[in-house]
Amino acid sequence: MNHTKLKNNGLTLDKLFLKTFHYNNGFLIDNAKRISYGDFYDTIISIAGKIHKDFGENKVVSVMDWNSMNFASLLYAIPISGNIIHPVDVRQPVEQIITSMREAGTRYIIYSNDFKNLVYSLKNSDLIPEENMKSINEIIDEHHNIKSDMELPKLDENRIASILFSSGTTGKPKGVKYKHRDIILTIWAMETNLSAFPGPSRLTSLDTVFSLIPFFHLWSWGTLYISTLIGSNYVIGGRFDPTTTLDMIKRNNVTWMSMVPTMFNALISYNNNSLDRMKILIGGSSVPSGILNFATAHEIEMAGIYGFTDGLAAGIGTSNIPGDLMRKNADAVNVITPLVFTDFDIYGENNELKFKSPWIPDSYFNIDSENAYKDGWFYPGDAAEFTKDGKIKIIDRIKDLIKSGGEFIPSALLEYHISEIDNIMDVAVIGVHDDKWGERPIAIYRTRDNIKLSNEIMVSHLKNLVKKGIIKEWWIPDSFIYMDKIPITGTGKIDKKSLRAMFEENIKKS
Q1: Residues 248-260: pLDDT tens digits?
Q2: pTM score, two decimals?
Q3: Are 152 and 13 in contact (CB under 8 A)?
Q4: Domains observed in the chain
Q5: Rounded distance, CA 352 to CA 248, Å?
Q6: With pLDDT > 70 as the criterion, what percentage of the chain qualifies?
Q7: Per-residue DSSP letters for 128-153?
Q8: Residue 51's Cα: distance from chain center in Å?
């Protein structure tokens, strides 16, 4: 088949298909159909032609959808049309969605049927004219009427391809802009770490990939872009749901997945053996010890990913430890190998990490960023240390460090060890105000069988760790609080901001 070759300069998104043209391998799969990457590319070019014809160029196009074949097409088609895609975090409050679109400079909205009521609520916001709000089916269906030889703009790799916003878990969502070149370099670096270096969860063109991360969160960690680059099959599962996910894993012989810890726990709680022998890229928050123990018992390979909306991917775990899967998984998850093309350093009394790469932005476009971007470095807000072999161990989020009596308690380390207790599913350790010590830790948890555990079990486990010199006795939380439902952010992380607000309010009332 002859495919339209675009005459773009440098590293533009269309280049991610060049290998799949040559070898004619790789399929995109959802619940309804399976199409080759060659046919997918032709569809993308046709949709890009329609968008360019109707929208022009250099417009910000906000997209509202769950992971779908249509959304996948737009991740390529909108930037290739000469416009800028803004994947909307649809789990944000309506007011925040409107604010983010206004700050992004949204000129068009493309939405699926699931969000027609949300779009209807935007019609009174004076954000954009109603005629610029387009159904995703309208855009996709009408591309068939576009001639295949329709002219598209000649793009340069330094043209803006996408706008992203952080989730806002620590305050106002922060906006960044990424060029075609930024995306390609990140994808290239990620796949290099995942394939050129030894370790668990290696990704090759023979794998079938299923990412549970929403497209609105870092383009599902760039997994679709990686898959079209190397020609691995890619499964799209819609809105995350354990039942649908497990069915699609089985039907499509999925071998490699990406997810956050809460998704992992949801899947194995639904079916204890559902992920046996899977290769998993896991991140978004610290990975508890309990997950690593479970993974080893079920022959699951795991590697950690470290990154952020405001700097894209920064590290992916590797390991050259032979044999022992538990040690290999722990090595690839608990310490992160910097991506190729990146540089790291540690700064200040809190051992704050700073990060440099060819793809980090110069600043946020919607807020003052003098503390985040400085002299070519990005400061993600993590405390860290270097290991002897040059890897990075994240100690904790600086905002999550609990300062008690003038000394810091690492919440992530406590969460890691509390998760070792049988039946613990998810756990969060936060600091709350204490008149004597400034802050003291409390642990909030839920269990797999929704039954509260005794405090004695928790304290006894942690005191054993004190005896071994792994933690300090004064780190042990003052309270262990069972919740049957812990608040989760739109990207699947435990929402510590909500938990702090909830328990600080309880303290004020008491």
Answers
A1: 999 999 999 999 9
A2: 0.85
A3: no
A4: 13-396 (3.40.50.12780), 401-509 (3.30.300.30)
A5: 41
A6: 95
A7: S-GGGEEEHHHHHHHGGGS-TT---P
A8: 27
